[in-house]
């Protein structure tokens, strides 16, 4: 039996999905833009169970405004062929001056910091509708290879 044959897939409970989301700051946002689905990397932070993204003006922001979106974060270990993935189906909402001051303050205090250069004065909140997660647990690993054996 190979390691792939003995690997198992586990469903991650929702509360554990949120804990895992809290351990990262880079995810992928899936939106429909200009008649095609696109997936873009974004930096994010959590405000409770809401995902907060700072972004710049453009097609990503326009497409995400009040739209159904998906958001994914995962972590993999190529050596052990293990890892996890969390998928969030959400409603995206741009937060601006027309929102309650308390919500705007919480959004800005979330800690979302973009890595990309440029003006990132627009804020999106992803309001989860469904959160799912999966974890691959490796089976028995093949024996380690001594690189000196090939010298």
Word description of this protein:
The protein is of the alpha+beta class. The protein has one domain: Pnp Oxidase, Chain A, CATH 2.30.110.10. The chain is 17% helix and 46% strand. The protein is built from 4 helices and 8 strands. Strands 1, 2, 3, 4, 5, 6, 7 and 8 form an 8-stranded antiparallel β-sheet that branches. The mean pLDDT is 87.
Task: Furnish the topology, listing elements before pairings.
Layout: H1 3-6, E1 8-11, H2 14-21, E2 26-33, E3 36-43, E4 45-47, E5 50-55, H3 59-64, E6 68-77, E7 82-95, H4 101-108, E8 122-137
Antiparallel strand pairs: 1-8, 2-3, 2-6, 4-5, 5-8, 6-7, 7-8
Q: What would the average pLDDT be, to the nearest integer? A: 87
Percentage of residues in strands: over 45%
Query: Please, how many domains?
Result: 1
Give the tally of β-strands: 8
Helix segment tally: 4
CA-CA gap between termini: 30 Å
Keywords:
elongated; alpha+beta; 4 helices; Pnp Oxidase, Chain A; 8-stranded antiparallel beta sheet; 151 residues
Brief overview, please?
With 151 residues, the protein is of the alpha+beta class. The protein has helices at 3-6, 14-21, 59-64, 101-108, and strands at 8-11, 26-33, 36-43, 45-47, 50-55, 68-77, 82-95, 122-137. 17% of the residues lie in helices and 46% in strands.
């Amino acid at each position: 039996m190979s390691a792939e044959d003995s690997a198992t897939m586990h469903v991650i409970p929702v509360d554990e999905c949120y804990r895992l989301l809290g351990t990262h700051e880079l995810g992928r946002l899936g939106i429909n833009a200009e008649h095609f689905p696109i997936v873009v990397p974004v930096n994010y932070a959590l405000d409770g169970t809401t995902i907060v993204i700072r972004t710049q003006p453009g097609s990503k922001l326009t497409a995400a405004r009040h739209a159904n979106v998906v958001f994914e974060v995962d972590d993999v270990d190529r050596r052990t062929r293990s890892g996890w993935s969390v998928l969030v189906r959400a409603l995206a909402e741009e937060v601006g001056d027309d929102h309650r001051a308390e919500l705007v303050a919480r959004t800005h205090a979330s800690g979302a910091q973009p890595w990309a250069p440029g003006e990132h004065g627009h804020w999106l909140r992803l309001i989860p509708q469904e959160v799912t997660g999966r974890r691959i647990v490796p089976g028995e690993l093949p024996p380690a290879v001594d690189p000196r054996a090939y010298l």
